Amino acid sequence: MSGYGQFCPVAKSMELLDERWTLLVVRELLAGSTHFNDLRRGVPKMSPALLSKRLKSLTRAGVVERAEIDGRTTYSLTECGKELADVVEALGAWGVRWIGELGEQDLDPHLLMWDIRRTIPIENWPRARTTVAFRLDGVAPKASRWWLVVSEGDADVCDFDPGHEVAATIETSLRTLTRIWRGDVEWSRALLDGSVKVSGPADVRRSIPSLIGQSTLSAVPRPA
Questions:
Q1: What is the pLDDT of residues 23-34, one digit of tens each?
Q2: What mean pLDDT comes out for the span 113-121?
Q3: Which residues are paired to 72 by β-bridges?
Q4: Which residues contact residue 163 at a Cβ distance below 8 angstroms, ignoring those fewer than 6 apart?
Q5: Which residues contact 94 (CB under 8 A, 6 or more apart)?
Q6: 63-72 mean pLDDT
């Protein structure tokens, strides 16, 4: 039986939303992704076939709207789908507060750098094109080097050298950067204890915490 067989609104909602990856696809749409490849970058361990299947299910349910704009397929949340924002935010806050342990399988440099790219405080960056490089320990060599480029109010992240002058280089482990981004550790503490090292001009080194920032859920208060 595909459903729960209950009239309860929670049960009826979960018949759609508790399929694997479904709420994470909604999370990506809420975060501003509109194209298939952008959605894939937010769920890098999800197969393209399954992502396509989930988008079709959400479209049939009236949660997602599919459209063609300038020859490209775009996806966006309907009014129905946008109402899930509070649900996703509440789940995120609950997870920060009560599920703090991170296993090795939870550490993903592709997702981390994509999330950093789309939510950094761009207003804090210089007006001229600025590139910050990352060197991550604890990951495969091909996923250990990243470049974050901010230019004209837009951010991009590359896993190959874009060839721009690097303003600063951040060296740390994938776990440490993930914990900083989640708000488990503050930038000031990580810089002080040496778990994060920043090379570059002194003024740029000092500004790294304000340039990179932390995730939108980092301010959620933890239990005592």
A1: 999 999 999 999
A2: 94
A3: 69
A4: none
A5: none
A6: 95
